[in-house]
Specification:
This protein is of the alpha/beta class and 265 residues long. The chain is built from ten helices and ten strands. Helix content is 43%, strand content 23%.
Length: 265
């Protein structure tokens, strides 16, 4: 679990995060959404420790990050996995070496144990026997799965994903969303996803935080966001004609249910 209390962050005279508080639970896919400039990227980097908040606290299972000593911070970082927007694979390394990189950097595991663990996670992301391929030899969707395998190879307690579906076609995006959600539940990870993909919001948004101008404008889940009356959320999520029609249908069903109960009474 990650607990955020009244975090603020400014750059010069510009306050980007304006007192945000929320909780991200383990075993759930927690999404941060918002328009460009809303503060979601700064919030993700602050959670990762790249930015230090000016005030407020971020607690990882009760451990307040700013109160940890350097050794404790290093230990916490080994519990974090990261999936970058562009996958960020090393072009000069094959799939096996890319996935093994965190284990070689942060553990003292034997070569055989590293290889066994790499094979285990590659099989988990449906990339069995892809070990010797290089990033330029596989598709964008496969690259993303390699990035996920690398992020979970060290058994993280926390998984951060920055626009994991960026550059992927809709069908592949669904595969990646489902994979991230399955892994989150399977390993009981606290997963935080920074995304602008509305399909992800409506499919795997078990906890959604909507930021607007550095403020937490709304939070809820994928069911609640479909019927919310919050104007800012509606304008952001349902900007396309397709999503507008979906929302209108859902609201009509909700109104019909409410009216039906009222008539029965």
């Amino acid at each position: 679990m990650i607990e955020i209390k009244d975090i603020r962050k400014s750059f010069g005279d510009v306050e980007v995060l304006k007192g945000i508080s929320t909780t991200f639970e383990a075993g759930k896919t927690n999404l941060i959404i918002g328009r460009s400039g809303s503060g979601k990227t700064v919030m993700l980097k602050t959670l990762l420790g790249i930015h230090t908040p000016d005030s407020g606290t971020i607690a990882f299972n009760g451990r307040i990050y700013t109160e940890l000593d350097p050794d404790e911070k290093r230990a916490l970082r080994t519990e974090i996995g990261m999936v970058f927007q562009g996958s960020a694979l090393f072009d000069s390394m094959n799939v096996e070496d890319n996935v093994a990189f965190p284990l070689k950097m942060f553990t003292n595991k034997r070569t055989k144990d590293i290889k066994d663990r790499v094979n285990e996670v590659l099989e988990r992301v449906n990339l069995k026997d892809a070990n010797r391929k290089f990033p330029n030899e596989i598709s964008g969707g496969m690259q993303k799965r390699v990035a996920i395998a690398r992020a979970i190879v060290n058994n993280p307690k926390y998984l951060f994903c920055d626009e994991p579906n960026s550059g992927l076609d809709p069908e592949t995006s669904i595969v990646i969303d489902e994979l991230v959600q399955e892994i989150t539940k399977e390993y009981n990870i606290t997963t935080v996803i920074n995304t602008h993909d509305m399909n992800s919001v409506l499919q795997i948004g078990e906890k959604i935080v909507f930021l607007k101008n550095g403020i937490k404008e709304w939070e809820g889940n994928k069911d609640e966001i479909q019927v919310t009356r919050n104007k800012s959320v509606v304008e952001f999520v349902y900007s396309s004609d397709l999503f507008k029609k979906v929302r209108e249908s859902l609201l009509a069903d909700a109104d019909e249910t409410i009216n039906g109960h009222t008539n029965k009474k």
